[in-house]
Amino acid sequence: MIEIIGNRDEAEAINAMLAGWMSALGNKDAAGVVEHLSDDVISFTLAAPLVHKGKGEEGLRGWFSTWEGPIGGDAVDVRLVVGEDVAFWTGLVHMTGRKTDGVEVDLWFRQTLGLRKAAGIWKIVHEHTSVPFAMDGSGLAELGLKP
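^ DUF4440 domain-containing protein, sequence as received from the core. Prediction below:
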């Protein structure tokens, strides 16, 4: 269930764009992923470095090559707030799959997307993904959390 705040017509267009983006991610289609990103996208992803600027199609291809088969995914607690030409999507994302080294991935993380409409087209301009870390001084990521 998606909670929508704001313009429902624009929300439909955004959800269709995000469905295409998520499908491309799951199918490891780097060109399909970056098609939905603005040229000036800023990403704070789970992987280093602290910030990625630009579409990064080549890096995405490299990351996709570390997966066997498709990358599974689902999102819960989704909220979409839509303005005239900007929108924000938030949710808890479940990523699953098998890496080429045999590691099974079953990870929940937080994601926020900032979107902008230009020339009638919605694009992702900001992506932020994160996992909480232990506040016990260890600094270890809390990778086993589930909603």
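The chain has one domain: 2-131.
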